[in-house]
Amino acid sequence: MATTSELDAAYVWHPYSSVHPPLAPYPVVSAEGVRLYLESGEGLIDGMSSWWCAIHGYNHPALNDALHAQVDRMAHVMFGGLTHRPAAKLAEMLVELTPEGLNKVFFADSGSVSVEVALKMAIQYWQARGEPGKTKMLALRGGYHGDTFHAMSVCDPVTGMHHLFSGVLPKQYFLDRPRAKLGEPADPDDLDAAEALLEAHADKIAALIVEPVVQGAGGMYFYSAQYLEQLCALCRRYNVLVIFDEIATGFGRTGRLFGADWAGVVPDIMCVGKALTGGYMTLAATLTTDEVAETLSQGEPGVFMHGPTFMGNPLACSVAIASLSLLTGSPWKEQVLAIESFFKEHLTACETWEEVADVRVLGAIGVIELKEAVDLAAITPLFVERGVWVRPFGKLVYLMPPYIIDREDLGLLVEGTLGALWTWLEQVRQSAVTASPVDGIPDGDSDEPDA
Ligand SMILES: *Cc1c(COP(=O)(O)O)cnc(C)c1O
């Protein structure tokens, strides 16, 4: 019988990879709490929460029960002309949790699709208001909004690889990512640039789309909440809708329930996904205000033109309800802030390493930015050897563990991450002919952060 790895190598294509990846993926057979268990029997502490999702950890009894209960009643029914308790109840919960005024919920099957839905809503809204020329989007450089075509068009043009699809991708308007970091006042020059762009092009722009306060996969950058607030105010002034992509920032990751809460702004449209189901199933939602929903519904053709086959899937909605109940019933804020202070104390141990450009921490997100890109194929086995699952991209080695991680495992995660990084950097230094000697840098093994 063929092994998982043999079948995978023969037939499967993985995210952002060729069919001949330089390092074969590790087969996982089960997961429990904060650990992923490999076929080889090793348990790895998950530093990624499966890409922002698994906030309660794996194999959680409450989430399992919700799915079991729902599957015995009904796994799925179409959402056109039919409805059901899980979707209706989840919509109510989302309206209650999200900033005041977002009262209508459109379910989608992934984050990228919820972004497409948001962009289409904005365009249809302006059509209904008799302004069909407003079809372009305004976005920040360094952003990430998904991989489908229009979502890709508002991602950072460089890291989003726009050149690969030039001629196919719609051209959008971009502002430089704000210079002011989170906690700093807005830089007036950044706001002037935004105003100049809006002044010149607002008649063509349907909406601003941003990840509030934290740019995720585009560069893990934390920017000024005051800038965000004032950018949104400018958009209001120039008749441009505001879309917040909270797919990564939503549900507590930054230490506040939503990124919007840092700026005290209520967007016209908001996308949520990722942690929505606690990492169990794919589900996303686009929320909007009564004003946008009513205007769109009264215009031509009077309906919103979107409807995924698996829209409002009852299994996904049931597990999302359970996940949100767990979240709101848990001390999530204390957990996230405990992770934040642990990272601030211990992840920063590498700040003085020659190859490290910056270490930054916000909520349950810890980022080590290197001066050069990481060699994923070389460093991944070093993480696995040390019992952690970490997946850097480009120059960024980052951690965003499940909120439920305890202090001991957090210690092991940080120690394993820094240890593997140090070992890899040593290999790079030794292989570099021009390597300069580095003094006074503690060894990754001996400089263990205390748990
Ligand atoms: C992951 C992500 C998306 C895309 O979500 P998918 O479920 O992968 O399609 C969009 N926006 C942000 C901010 C994300 O982090």
Description:
- The protein has 14 helices and 16 strands.
- It is globular.
- It is of the alpha/beta class and 451 residues long.
- It folds into two domains: 4-59 and 331-435, Aspartate Aminotransferase, domain 1 (Alpha-Beta Complex); 62-328, Type I PLP-dependent aspartate aminotransferase-like (Major domain) (Aspartate Aminotransferase, domain 2), CATH 3.40.640.
- Strand 10, helix 9 (260-263) and strand 11 form a beta-alpha-beta unit.
- It has a seven-stranded mixed β-sheet, sandwiched between helices.
- The structure holds pyridoxal-5'-phosphate.
What is the CATH C-level name of the largest domain? Alpha Beta
Task: Tell me the major beta sheet.
Answer: 7 strands, mixed
What is the number of independent domains?
Answer: 2
Question: What multimeric state do the chains show?
Answer: single chain
- Order of strands, main sheet, comes to 4-12-11-10-7-5-6
> β content, as a range?
15-25%
Taken from the alpha-carbon principal axes, the silhouette is globular
Tally of separate helices: 14
| CATH architecture descriptor of the largest domain | 3-Layer(aba) Sandwich
